[in-house]
Amino acid sequence: MLRIETFSLGPLQTNAYLLRGEDEKRAIIIDPGMNSGPLLRRIEGLEIEAILLTHAHFDHIGGVDEIRKLKKCPVYLHALESDWLTTPKLNGSLMWPQIGGPIALEPAEYELAEGQKLHLIGHEFTVYHTPGHSPGSVSFLCGKDLFSGDVLFRMGVGRTDLPGGREVDLYNSIRGKLFQFADDVIVYPGHGPKTTIGYERVDNPYLT
């Protein structure tokens, strides 16, 4: 059983996810957002096996280096955004200076690719390349739990007007990949409440 804790972090209320398996002392983090104090306090005493990034926009990566240095854990990111962590212009942190300063981090230790299987905290996570919001956006599926980043939201979809975004790719990612999953797959998005594939397939106004 996957235990999932959600932290809504930073000015954009980005969802960071802390995941644990049977061993309560081992965990992974998906998208440690900005102002990650609550998450840092929660992981005291935990072994963090990895940080998984759905994509490298600034509001999803703000806590990466602090956690990586504290916990000596590797970061995973799709190859198409390998230089976004190191480049404020690419990760968007220069676009909204009122939210925070430029973010320039160390590169990710590992690259993600379509169909890759990650074995972490006693569970298997499958990587799906789901571009559109950004070129290297990925979604992670573990059993019936899907972490969709900023691709699919409850009653919404990711914006495509940022650098590297492309509307046709976004809809292809959702309809061609995410909507191939069963109705009861639970979607944990990058912002907002969780939902299900079945609900979004029927009720999402952007997709019906």
Care to describe what's here?
One of its GO terms (molecular function) is hydrolase activity. It comes from Paenibacillus lutimineralis. Counteracts the endogenous Pycsar antiviral defense system. Phosphodiesterase that enables metal-dependent hydrolysis of host cyclic nucleotide Pycsar defense signals such as cCMP and cUMP. It catalyses: 3',5'-cyclic CMP + H2O = CMP + H(+); 3',5'-cyclic UMP + H2O = UMP + H(+). This protein is α/β, with parallel strands linked by helices. It has one domain (3-203): Ribonuclease Z/Hydroxyacylglutathione hydrolase-like (Metallo-beta-lactamase, Chain A, 4-Layer Sandwich). Helix content is 19%, strand content 30%. The protein has a 6-stranded mixed β-sheet with strand order 1-2-3-4-5-6, covered by helices on one side. The protein has a 6-stranded mixed β-sheet with strand order 7-8-9-10-13-14. The model has no long low-confidence stretch (mean pLDDT 96).
Give me the oligomer status: single chain
Output the helix-strand order. EEEHEHHEHEEEEEEEHEEH
Q: Decide which structural class fits the backbone.
A: alpha/beta
Basic shape: globular
What separation lies between the terminal Cα atoms?
32 Å
* Count of individual helical segments: 6
**How confident is the prediction overall: mean pLDDT?**
96
Helix content, binned percent = 10-25%
Q: What Rg, in angstroms, do the CA atoms define?
A: 16 Å
Function: Counteracts the endogenous Pycsar antiviral defense system. Phosphodiesterase that enables metal-dependent hydrolysis of host cyclic nucleotide Pycsar defense signals such as cCMP and cUMP.
Protein name: MBL fold metallo-hydrolase
GO molecular function: hydrolase activity; metal ion binding
Domain Metallo-beta-lactamase: 13-191
